[in-house]
Design goal:
The chain is mostly helical. The chain folds into two domains: 284 residues, no CATH class; 188 residues, no CATH class. Helix 12 packs antiparallel against helix 17. It starts with a helix and ends with a helix.
Amino acid sequence: MAKYWRNRVELTVVMGVFAWFLKLRVVGIATVLLFLNIIYRKCYVLNQERKRERKRFEDVSSYMEQMLASFYRTPKILSALEDTKRIFEGDRERTARAERCAKSGRILKRRNDGESAEMYPAIEAAIYQIRTGTEGGEIYRKALGEIEKSYGCRRLYRIHDFMIRVEKNGGDCRESLELLTEDGRLWNHQIQEMLKEKQQVAVKATLCVGMAFLICALAVAMLPEDFGVAGQRISQVVTTLVVICNLFFWYLGMKLLCGDILHSEEQEVSGHTWRQYEDVMQNRPVRGKKLAWIWAVVLGIFGGIMAVKQGIFPAATLFFLAWLQVLWPDFRRKNEEKKIRREVEKAFPDWLLGVALCLQTDNVQVSLAKASKEAPKIMERELARLQKNLQEDPVSIEPYLKFFAPLKIPEITSAMRMLYGMETSGAGDLQRQLQDLAKKDLSMQSRAEKMRTEDMISGVGFLSLFPMLTGVVKLLTDLMLVILYLVSTIRIEG
């Protein structure tokens, strides 16, 4: 906490000097410093949360990698857990210290590096459940649930479900484990790249705020003292608001960049999105097209009247607005299609991986049904249609080709053709087909993770433009005051 307060005091002093340089009065300086301290506290909390989330990601990534490696050698959950526990031995000391502090009534201070000791005790609790449990087949689900309580994410659930299924049914699981291992490595790599990009965006946002402050400082430095512009009330208010807005935009950008890493791929689907989804998938008529034409006709009539009475330029404006009214519904539908297509492209590889894992022991249609139970939300309705179509026509390729057909995504069509080929060709060439399907899925997984990263940082990149706009507002305000001063001076001399 000493470092926290030292940094807080230093930043307050620096900002106070900067506010004084901007010629803010006591009220303005006090307002800026008060807001700065509020923002600093919030940013400190965000930074601690960011470190904690990164440590949680590193923990769960190491856990999954070691569990898969141990399970590959010995396909027993208990043995894999005991092997995995050893790589988290460093947390044992901290866990014991936490227990001693709890017994003595003291509080264990969290280190600034975001260190967490959640994984080690969670693994120990899982091992204890397996060794002492009497729930039969559900003992593994209950035991691994101890880990999922703290680190639950879709990939962790999938690995646990797969291990429980192998523990129960047996069989050769090496190819599936290799697929899960490669998927985990790809996920780890993409998350690391995402964190690097987020750091770069954070630096750019900070530089934009710094440039905005520099513009404000230059504006004040170039103003002659005789004009007295900086001391006017409107200049004081605008300068104070500009500084506060820049600090707020910077904080908002940092908050947007501090998301949940483990659950970044899990997004709720709103009612509005579902409505757009059904419009696109069922190719419903474009909403609001009749109303748009009515407005276009009204604007065209007024445009004709303006052309006769006011001239061509006002009429051209109205005609242009009428043209936009006609185009807007179709433009909105294209954006909806793009949005839904993007969401499906992000969700499909996750579901396809589940199918590939089930194909190790089941046929295609059974695997489709099993994987659909844990599918992303955006795919639930189309998967239900797929199951219905397969029941009505189980031998034709048509149900496979109809799957998300309105979106016209080549990767999905290709994957569904491969699944149909596996259904009709039998077990003779199954392993090669599974390998091809796995390669396709991993390629799609990589693209999906890149899209998630783009979606996450796109808003922050746009937000970083606002500080520059505030700097322009400051310049324009001072320019206006200078012009008013010069005009008033000329009048007095005249």
